[in-house]
Amino acid sequence: MTTPTNPKNLTAKQILATWLPLVASWLLMSIELPTINAFAARLPDAEVNLAAYGGVVFPIALTIEAPVIMLLAAATALSRDWRSYQQLKKITLWMGGILAALHLLVAVTPIYDFIVNVILQVPPEVVEPGRSGLLFLTPWTLAIAYRRFQQGTMIRFGHSKMVGETTAVRLVTGVIVLAIGYAIGSIPGATLAGLTQGLAVSAEAAYAGLRIRKIRHLIKDAPPAEKPLTPKRFITFYVPLAITSSIWLLWLPLISGTVSRMPDPIESLAVWSVATGLIFMFRTPGVAYNEAVVALLEEPCAFPILRKFARTAALVTTGIAAVFVATPLSRFYFTVIANLPPDRAETARLTLLIAVPLAIFSVYISLYQGIIVQQEKTGPVAEAVAVFLLVLAVVMITGVITAPFKGVYMASFGFTVAHVAQAVWLFFRSRKQRRELAVCS
Question: Fewest CB atoms within 10 A around its CB: which of 76, 209, 228, 434?
């Protein structure tokens, strides 16, 4: 890749310096779920507990967490000075605390029974393991909110490497908890999974709060933002993003509920739980590109090089994903590491194969979405997610009605097609901004 000759313009080296630590952080996070599944697959009632965590606990927890997911992008875009940092911190703690209370309420009241038995209609065997896993995952939302806010500020002030450090703390904590739980041997897999992620994200959040102190002087010394962060400005900026993440994460219960109504529901939910960990890894480089675009788009002549970099990143990551699926590496992973029986391993490999295009479209979703977010015109992002969910719903409901394949195949196909639709919508909705940014003097 060539770089602009003007030293004042953004270069590919600068993009790499910002993007790679974020990729490393997302990759470390993406390792977490496969690691948890690998341990759960070696505990008693493995298939039931994998189905409970992947089909019940994770969808419910992420749906509750959804409004705080975009705090990373919000802090990257808005945490420009000490006053805005303090404002965002207060908002983060309120949002995270309220949603954590909601999480606990769902876990310990009949609301849980209504969700899993009436809405999701999961197999009866997974209901109680799912309840236990959800209860132990209670710290999740508040911890995620706090660490995403701090990580966004790190990125804004040019210290994206710190993001990887905080994620490493999360992964190490998780492995320690898993190892202890596995050694005990009597903790059900879904319970151990919830306990692991609850403690791991709490450790990550605490470490992020400590590490931000190193750059506190930079935040305090930053010149006041031209546009002060007022509650009205935050609401205008963030509400479309919160709606976006909330709508987007409805895919989790949507897939769980429809797969539960298709052939071989327990097998499909268990395999989907394992496959989603690797699907997330396919998407990781693209997802990480969003914050890089938001942080770097203000640099001179940024858009042309960011667009060119996206093309290269999409090709490389897709090539790596295709090689993994097409070679014995995938079979080794599913049979040896994930500990799936041979027939389940083949089902998982085919599920993964269907999802390979996600590596391309995740990069371009982040490019177009990053442009829109950086310009503080966040409405089209919500529109694109609504398109995503609509397309996914059409595919999955068609699968329930016709039942042509196992539910896990329909889930992978629907998830992939929906991302294509989302990318196309963002492409058209960002045309005006891209035309303006393409003019480079």
Answer: 228
Q: What is the mean pLDDT of the chain?
A: 88
Burial class (CB in 10 A: 0-12, 13-18, 19+), 221: exposed
Give CA–CA dist 263/246, Å, rounded.
28
Contact (CB, 8 A) for 23 and 317 = no
Question: Where are the alpha helices (H) located in 297-357, listed in sequence order?
Answer: 302-326, 328-332, 342-354
Q: Mapping DSSP to helix (H, G, I), strand (E, B) and coil, where does residue 74 land?
A: helix
Distance CA 79, CA 85 (A): 5
pLDDT band at 351 (very low <50, low <70, confident <90, very high): very high
**Is it the case that residue 53 has pLDDT exceeding 60?**
yes
Rg (C-alpha) for the chain, rounded Å, is 21
Structure tokens at 140: 């999740």
CA–CA distance, 353 with 224 (Å, rounded to integer): 49
pTM of the model: 0.74
Q: 89 pLDDT exceeds 80?
A: yes
3 has pLDDT over 60: no
C-alpha triplet 97, 100, 103: angle, nearest 5°: 155
Residue with tokens 């770089």: 3
